[in-house]
Structure formats: structure tokens, C-alpha cells
């Protein structure tokens, strides 16, 4: 059994293929590997059921009635919806491979594909989704810390992480150096920063600041 896939078996493989025999074959294979799966005949059926809170990866056929696999992939990208996508098709060519990989697919499988090819791609998809969710949780935590700062503390943080000295910040904000030091200490504590370098890394997580959008 593929141990790396087994270790992430709490996740789900979402199979979208209009061929019932292929859906059943993949589902049966995944069941033997203790990997959860859900099958859909169309992209529309999948969209009606899938929620971003559902961890896993998407095994997506290119040729589908209605919304095609490539259209679904591009729709997800345009809407900012994130799920690792494995493209599968019996009718692939180099331009198609380039297109879907450029759009963010993690793998391109040509039918009929080998069992190990599929399991390796799923393992990669699960790991990518786990890491994305871990980073997302970290970002949300940092944003939560930032929301606890007062407007003045946010101003001090912005200037501290820009590399300004206390006396420069004091002059810019019309404060005493002692007051700046107090605000700076509060910022470090509230943002859970152990050093200036740590605070700079935390600020980078928040993104390009003005900070006011957080």
C-alpha cells in the first residue's frame, strides 16, 4: 500500500468523469487503498456539492458534457478557489498539457494510466492541500493578532518593519521615544514576535501594507 497516501486518508479524491465505468474503476481502486472518494458525472454536479472546506484533490477529466474539465479548472483559477487538480484524458496533446499545467494542474495523466501514477499524483495533491490549509491557518492567525493592535500600534509596526529607529518613528508620529518604545513592546507581544526579524517575517505574511485592509 502507498504509505504516503494512506497517511492522508482523511482527505477525499473528487472524481469528475462522464464515463461511469472509469469512475467505478477508480473508486474501487481507491477503496482498496483506504482512500475516500466521491464521484460525479459532470462538472456541474461537482460544483453543486463541493465546498472549499472539503480537503482533498480533484481528479478531473478533460472532455465532459456541459462545462469541460479545462473550463472548470479555469473557472476555479479565476474565482480564486483552490484545490489541487489532476487532469486526466485519453485525448491529450502537448498544447493541452501546457495549457492545464500553466493553469496550475499538479499532474496530467493520459488514459489508461498506471495505478502507481494515479496514487503518486493523489499523494502529491493531498500534501499540497494540507500545506495550503496549514499556511492559510497561519495567515488567519497572524491577521487575528494584527486586529488586536490599536491604530497607533499599527503605525508603529509599519515603521518598525520599514527599518526606522525609535527616534525617527517618534519624530514622524509626534511622540516621545519612550512612548514609541512602549507601543513597540505592545506590538511585539500582541503579534507574538520574538525579535525584530520575526516581526518583519510576520509583516510579510500580512502582505503589502497599508495593513488597513486586514
Written account of the structure:
With 214 residues, the chain is an alpha/beta fold. A 5-stranded parallel beta sheet has the order 2-1-3-4-5, with helices on both faces. The longest helix is centred in the middle third of the chain and has 33 residues, at 115-147. The model is unreliable at 1-9 and 208-214 (pLDDT under 50). The chain has helices spanning 3-6, 20-32, 43-49, 69-79, 94-102, 115-147, 151-161, 166-173, 177-190, 196-206; strands at 12-16, 36-40, 56-61, 85-89, 107-110. Helix 7 crosses helix 9 (177-190), helix 7 (151-161) packs across helix 10 (196-206) and helix 8 crosses helix 9. The two termini are 45 Å apart.
